[in-house]
User: What shape does this take?
Amino acid sequence: MKRPLEEAPAMDGSSIAAPASARTLDQLVARFAQRAARHDRSGEIALDNLADLRDAGLLALALPPASGGQGIGVRQITEIVGRIAQGDPSTALILAMQYLQSGAIARSPAWSDTVRGELFASIVRDGALINALRVEPELGTPARGGLPATSVRHDGTAWRLNGRKIFSTGSTALKWGVVWSRTEEDTPRVGQVLVPLDLPGVRIEQSWNQMGMRATGSHTVIFENVALPDHYLVNLAPPGSAPDEAVALATWHAVVVGALYDGVARAARDWLIGFLHARAPSNLGAPLSTLPRFHTLLGEIDALLLTNSALIDHALRREEAGEQAGTDAGLVKQVVTENAIAAVGKAVAAIGNPGLSQDNPLERHYRDVLCGRIHTPQGDSALASAGRAALAG
Assistant: This one.
């Protein structure tokens, strides 16, 4: 039976987690943290975590209330994802994509009521997961430009989808893929195609074997003559005419992903505090927590994380005020992730070998937090975009 989050009024008129839901998140984080090492070592998606999120009613929160959700906005998404990341960031990333994609579909006029209704019903009824499938082997991330090789063509009876997508977070656990494609027409159109991933012709190649975020299951999804009805071709348009909602989604994505890696750093901080209290070398005769150098270390880490909190709140306030964040969102993601990496790196360097032992979670936190540099927008793109905007102004 689903246990939806209680609602409380938020500054923007939406709902935020009430104390009861905060307790639910605390319980989930503790449970996920206990499982995280096992899923990291196996490289398998934490299906038990996803089932817990479904049972707690969290997977549908970004849907409109009329469709069975709570219509949560970017602040609530950021808070929940950042908190879940303290337990298991791989699970948090799958949840983040669930919120960002389902929320974007709810706001977009390009999606028909029929398709939206089918999709939303499966999320509420079955806990179905959705994510965008965009990155390709030859092209890389679409954020850097170019047209997809993945294509749809009409064979006289149906549209046929062919191509492959790499780094597909949640792959084997997904029910739906929003696939970035182009049409095989004289003048190609580019956009989103909705694909039920259990259709004939869809297969998953086990290709994800990364250093960090190992339990995201970001494998390669391959499409071979997958038949799709017309209404699953959602918003194909001439190249370069991206709809406004794509810009908004990119802004939300940058802030939410930054908050996720901030959550990893906070988990590392909390573990370090426990370690310093528990570790009492015989030559010292007292816990490491009594040494001034570790007081300074925690102060440095907390300064980095305080900066993160301020930056994330800055971006969220701008969004809530209806301001166009522009390059700010990319800069927030860049600085927040670098601060998170620096915070965990300080912890590892300070305690030596225990920080790199797989017997301790700090080693996993360090591998996971480094992945923040890979997520769009990547650092060079965010900084270059901000620089161009400054010079153009």
Summary: The chain has a mean pLDDT of 91. The two ends are 54 Å apart (CA to CA). The first strand starts at residue 7 and ends at 9. The chain has three domains: 7-128, 132-232, 244-392.
